[in-house]
Amino acid sequence: MRRPLVRALARPLILAAAAAAIPLLSAAPAASDGVVVGGFPVDVAHSPWTVALSSRDRFGGTRSGQFCGGVVVGPTTVLTAAHCLSLDALGAPPDQVRDLKVIAERTDLYTDQGREIRVSGTWVNPGYDSASNAGDFAVLTLAESLPRTAAIALAAEGDPAYAPGTEAVVYGWGDTTGFGAYAHSLRAAQVHVLDDERCERAYPASADGTYLASSMVCAGEPQGGRDACQGDSGGPLVAQGRLIGLVSWGSGCGRAGSPGVYTRVSDVVRVLGLRATPPGALAAPSGAATMP
Ligand code: 4AZ
Predict the structure, then answer these.
(1) What is the CATH number of the domain that holds 54?
(2) Could you tell me the end-to-end alpha-carbon distance of the chain, in angstroms, rounded to an integer?
(3) Where is the signal peptide (predicted)?
(4) Looking at the domain assignment, is residue 55 inside a domain?
């Protein structure tokens, strides 16, 4: 069963708030359909390209209004998932969400650390197909600049970071249990890039979506466990210092045989005509991704 993140978010926020107040409530959820294990806490200073998308109007203020992840690819440019900006997710077109913001440099959503920057423009990939989940990306323009050093390099087509077996790390503030227990502090999980045949077998045309190698990349662990989950959507999957994916979809979270599916960043680069790190080049530490 696919449980699109934002659709599922409003209700679990109440659970998350309750769990935060009474920590015992979050222990051993009996009905969990997948468990993100192997994740570990990280400081956003070590992944400054990881940002939170926020609307307190739509999602409440407890966790700084966070509802999706995003990735800084230029001083005023953030990539996220198209489905994060859908009517279904926001309940309104994105330009009518007045308090839509990007939160940078904040590890813990319960604090006021870092910066909240207004989103001055949104562009949703017109090629996004909510049936297959192909083309699940959108571009946010920020009203103020972030430091160039916050941007991550993009992996273009042919980049060795896409090779099956490559170690990758996914970052987010999403559900850590598959049960609506949203993290308040940033976490990361290490997964491996999987080969397209395996992903196609895991996700033939179904109600959840269809794995399409041209626009998606999938990652996980054979035994399940480590994975992205609801609330992580739009956030980064990084390999060899470059961005290879945006959290997009999957069946449940951390289930063996149901890897996480990510928007393939080389396809984003192609559609947007972005400059990316050439295949085989050393990872630029920062600032290598540039919008036209
Ligand atoms: C979602 O619906 C979602 N386990 C995100 C990631 C995954 C599944 C679902 C991957 O936002």
Answers:
(1) 2.40.10.10
(2) 38
(3) 1-27
(4) yes
